[in-house]
Amino acid sequence: MSVKFGWILFFAMLLLWTSFSWQPLDFCIVFPISLVILSAIAIFFSRIPIKRKPPLTICGFALLSGLFLYGLFAFGKWLITLTGIPLLASLETLYDMIRPTEWWHYFVLFVFIIPGEELFWRGYVVGTLHNQMSEGRAIIFGALLYGIVHAASSSLLLVLAAFLAGLVWGWLFVRTKSIWPPLLSHLLFDALLLIWLPLM
């Protein structure tokens, strides 16, 4: 991996650590700004296949993957409740931080945050890794990086969730060679998780 790629990853982690940890500033302001910056970096430093639109069947599969991820996380929450593992309090704290409550929260979520995460983490990070290693390794390493950066939230559940979702979205990106399938999956997943059927 190039030095430039390493520095960009370091900068991304610094931005997202600031978003989760800099308490005087509102997460709902700092996080979208961070993703706008990372989107610009991704577009400037890589050739993300934005214009390559997949067929409707692939789009349908992408939406099903969003449903699958939501179902997987709903099952995980049920399992935590059933077993009594003391993680529900951290899940509730996390929901309080990231759940949209104002109209503009929804706007930045769907216009800046979700597209920004896909452009940077799949389009730039997984795309760059895939140019240097095998498909499988690029997907796994990309998901690991996506999970690790969420450690700034101090939530083990968010790290695990980001890693699992990163595997699915990275696979969609690499297999379809298009940013649209992971973006569609991510949009549906977040809409279910944070708006329509929240788990807390």
Can you characterise this structure?
- This protein is an all-alpha fold.
- The chain has 8 helices and no strands.
- It has helices at 3-21, 27-45, 56-83, 88-98, 103-130, 135-149, 156-176, 180-196.
- α3 (56-83) packs antiparallel against α7 (156-176), α5 runs antiparallel to α6 (135-149) and α5 (103-130) packs antiparallel against α8.
- It is globular, with a radius of gyration of 16 Å.
- The N and C termini lie far apart (40 Å).
Topology (elements, then pairings):
Layout (H helix, E strand, L loop, with lengths): L2 H19 L5 H19 L10 H28 L4 H11 L4 H28 L4 H15 L6 H21 L3 H17 L4
Question: Would you report the number of β strands?
Answer: 0
Radius of gyration: 16 Å
Low-confidence stretches: none
The shape, in one word, is: globular
The rounded distance between the terminal residues' Cα atoms is 40 Å
H/E order of the elements?
HHHHHHHH
Instruction: State the helix count.
Output: 8
Secondary structure category: mainly alpha
Percent of residues in helices? over 70%
Estimate the strand proportion.
Answer: under 5%
Average pLDDT across residues?
92
Largest sheet: none
Main traits of this protein?
mainly alpha; 8 helices; globular
Short description:
Helices cover 79% and strands 0% of the residues. With 200 residues, the protein is mainly alpha-helical.
